[in-house]
Amino acid sequence: GAKPRDIRMQFLIESVFLTTIGGIFGLMLGIGASLIVADLMKWPVSISLFSALIAFGFSAFVGVFFGFYPAYKASMLNPIDALRYE
């Protein structure tokens, strides 16, 4: 009984959630790797909050951008047909 709009939103929320989680882990790994390499090479390192927010925002944008088409396709499917091929 869900409306196509509800299905689209569910898929988009899932897509943004997954890419945001990936963005968080990517930031943690990137910052950690930067600190390790900088320490080994004796380089100064500076990580700004602005750069981290840009990276985080970009990951959320990727989730919306690349999640929209699958969400749209899923919302157009007949539920019986979608379950038949599950």
TrEMBL record:
Keyword Cell wall biogenesis/degradation part of the UniProt annotation: no
Family: Belongs to the ABC-4 integral membrane protein family.
Record's protein name: FtsX-like permease family protein
Predominant location: membrane
A GO cellular component annotation in the UniProt record: plasma membrane
All residue ranges annotated as the ABC3 transporter permease C-terminal domain in the record: 1-79
Membrane-crossing segments per the record: 12-37, 43-69
Aminoacyl-tRNA synthetase keyword on record: no
One of the Pfam families matching this protein, by short name: FtsX
GO molecular function: transmembrane transporter activity
InterPro entries: ABC3_permease_C, Macrolide_Exporter_MacB
Entry keyword set: Cell membrane, Membrane, Transmembrane, Transmembrane helix
Topological type in the membrane: Multi-pass membrane protein
Cell compartments where the protein resides: Cell membrane
